[in-house]
Each structure stands twice: as structure tokens, then as C-alpha cells.
Amino acid sequence: MSHLSYSLYFIFYTGQSIRNMVIKQPGSTSAGGSMDIQLRHIYKTFGNQEVIHDFSISLKSGCITTFLGPSGCGKTTLLRMIIGFNSIEGGTISVGGRVMNDVSPDKRNMGMVFQNYAIFPHMSVRDNVAFGLRMRNIPEKDIEERVDHMLKVVKIDHLKDRMPVALSGGQ
């Protein structure tokens, strides 16, 4: 199985809400076969409250993107739409050229780090990181290698055996 990287580089700030925006990253027209993420004319409402209005962006695979803005402007909603946790009222979300609008979250091969604690208090740091891989029946040897690598990448490998109660808020 290949590792797909969706670290996207782009800093986005909006004062009110995500509205009428078309954002294109430099170099986002890559060769076929890439796993770029394309959002085209995205709309999202909650009841009669329009949260995201005609938003488009091309996100190049392998880059890092950050969405910045005040509470309630649609940042988390947009990410939840990409991952498939929120519905899409209009527009298309494509990954590698495949429209994902009607693809269930478990079939998108994506993950999301939530704003609030989404960790198991009875598991060590290592076991929390490994949980999703175990649920996908990845071989244990591969899980160990991937977890060790990711803990090193985020510079918390020295905390791998700690329980969540023994971590500070920033850890």
C-alpha cells in the first residue's frame, strides 16, 4: 500500500466566512496520476445559515496547507467535508481526479486530527497512534515501523509509553 501525503502548504485567512473564493497554489497543475485534492464551487449550509459559499481551491499533494480564521468561519466544516464527515450542498471534491462527494468516509483512505481530544485514555501514546492501523488490519510489524516513524516525525517518540493522563496539553 502506498503512503498518500496530504500535507498541503497554503495559509488562508478569512475575516468572516469562506465565500466566493478561488485559490490556486503555484504549481498545482501537476502531471496525471497525482493525488491532488480539488475543491470546486463548494457550498455548505446548516439550516438557513450559509457557512461556505462558492469556495474553490487546488491542493497539491506533498504540500502543507493551513486554514486560519475566526471561530465559526468554516475551517473545520471544510475539512470535515473533505474527509466525508459533513455533507456537500453544492460543488465537487476530487482526490486524484476521482469525485469523492458520495464516497463514504471509510472508503476515502484519509484521516483527520480533531480539535478536541480524540484519544483513548486507557491506551499509551503508541497504542493511540497505532489504533487506526490496527482497525485496518495492517500487519503488526508494519504498524510498529509506521508508528515509530510518525512519533519521530512529530518529535514525541520519547513519550510513546506514556498514558494520556501523563501528558501536558501541548503533547
Task: Please characterize this protein's 3D structure.
There is one protein chain. The strands form two sheets. The protein has a five-stranded mixed sheet, covered by helices on one side. With 171 residues, it is an alpha/beta fold. α2 (125-135) packs across α3 (140-153). The protein has helices spanning 75-83, 125-135, 140-153; strands spanning 11-13, 18-24, 37-46, 49-59, 66-68, 90-95, 98-99.
Short description:
The protein has 171 residues and is α/β, with parallel strands linked by helices. It has 3 helices and 7 strands, in the order βββββαββαα.
SSE arrangement, N to C: EEEEEHEEHH
Label the overall shape.
Answer: globular
Number of DSSP helices? 3
CA(first)-CA(last) distance: 29 Å
Q: Helix coverage percent of residues?
A: 10-25%
